Structures are given as C-alpha cells and as structure tokens.
C-alpha cells in the first residue's frame, strides 16, 4: 500500500485484498522470556489480542500475571496462531529449527515474525514458502547471513514480506537508555551494589 500510494495511487485504499484485522486475533509466542512478555503485554492491552505461548523453561507463575495461555508443545503454536512470533536465543539446540515443515502447519493467512536471530530459520525454505504461498506473510528484522544472501534478496521484491535491517530495537532513545544502564551498573559495582541488569545471575 505504501508503495502504491507513493506512486500516486490514492485509491489503493479501496482494495481490501490481503488486509488483516489484528484485534481478536491470536498471537503465538515461541519463547516466553523478558522481551516476549513485554511484546505480549502490548498486544494484549493495546491491540486486544489473545496470546498463547510455548516455552519449556517458563511456568505460569513466571508470566507476571499476563494472561498468556501456555501450550504443551511448539506445534500447537504453529497450528493455532494467526501471528507467530519467535523469541528464542540462538544456540545449537535452536539453530535452524524453523523451516518449511513449520510453515506448512500454519493457518492459511497466518503471519510469521522474527526479530530474534536469523540463524533460527532455514532462510532458503522461508523464501520458498513466501514465494509459493505456503507462508502468507512475514515481518523480518534479522537474517542469516547479514546483509542478505543472494537468494534472500528475492524478498526485497516480495509484496508479502516487511523487512528491516536488524534495527527493531534501534532508536535514539534506546541507545541512550542502553548506555545509561551500562554506566549505572558500573557505578553500582564500584560501590558494592548488585547490578540492575546482570548478564548472568549467580
């Protein structure tokens, strides 16, 4: 729509094809850590979405009161959600664990989101799924490799994918907050106080 409007087509607004309402839809989280919970809260309270999640290391008590319905396995997320958002760390056990098999489980108009790590995905299979319609749409901020591989550059011309260059967390304010947080924790350590944001809690 943005591309059409910029080219002078104001009446693109009359076309309803491939438009999706967010309110009342189900967001599925793969990984329910800190970032996923912040995202879930915004989607529940701001957008009126239902949220389901799968994380074998998180209990209901660790969700901070958020009404996230925890599922017993990842397949339930892929099969049930209207939007699937992945929030996993990249490690040997999670590397390239998402591919065509998972995309084929998704609902016909479901959308895949990845702002975690590109290496979690079989990127060539995702490109093929987007090209062939197996995957209805995607929003991607991370890739493997970065910048885009020659094969993945096909996505630059696809209408069913939104791409950003690993910049989802980058704003002027966020950079200032990050630097301030690091400096504050250095001061805390110098005065024998525990850091607010430790990388590892001992």
From TrEMBL:
The keyword Oxidoreductase is annotated on this UniProt entry: yes
EC number: 1.1.1.81
Alphabetical keyword list: NAD, Oxidoreductase, Pyruvate
Entry keyword annotation includes Oxidoreductase: yes
Uppermost EC category: oxidoreductase
Annotated ranges, domain D-isomer specific 2-hydroxyacid dehydrogenase NAD-binding: 2-168
An example molecular function term from Gene Ontology annotations: NAD binding
InterPro entries in UniProt: D-2-hydroxyacid_DH, D-isomer_DH_NAD-bd, NAD(P)-bd_dom_sf
Assigned protein family: Belongs to the D-isomer specific 2-hydroxyacid dehydrogenase family.
This protein's name: Glyoxylate/hydroxypyruvate reductase B
Designated gene of the protein: ghrB_19
